[in-house]
Amino acid sequence: MTRRILARTEREALAHSLERLGPTAPTLLPSWRARDLLQHLLLRERWPHLMALSYVPGHAGLWAQRRLEERAALTWQQMVDLFRAGPPPLSPLLPVDARVNAAEHLVHHEDLLRAQPDWKPRSLSAQHQEEAWQVLRQMHRLLVRVPITLTLVAPQGSLRQRRRREHSVRVHGDPVELLLWAFGRDDVCVQLHGSGSALDLLAQGRRGF
User: Cystine design at 64: which of 3, 53, 169, 186 (Cβ 3.0–4.6 Å)?
Assistant: First the structure.
């Protein structure tokens, strides 16, 4: 499975979940409902120029604000359909869709699914897990900044960040769970192994952007 395939399949799966759960469904993100999550995704890949212009004083800023208000008034199905269609031809994300959206769609899909009262872990394929592992290999040093030696351990192998040798923690889990953990999510199936002082230092670090 290439990252382009994963980005596309997770986009379709997330669109389906958004349709099924509706705009008021909770997410793991504080104060965000499904509609807030979808608006974030659409602004990010379709209208980032409007967001930037909306802060400019004068006519340009007012014009951008009006365009954003029009887009905020779209129906739920219209918003879902726009997301499902992917970035438009002039979107800055179109050339890097495969690189950035595999993690974006996967993490936000789980943000939606895991906030539901009937949530159960998805049964993901070995190829899905392998792709998540490749994403984690490339991003873990950007996502996790902690003052200890940290090792992420999955069936595919391990990733180590060397910091203070006297304090170390090992985080065990499947790649998707480790990726979610690295993005700062706590509703994950991982196991942390380390001394009490090392775990305290880990909690003082940063996960996610």
Answer: 53
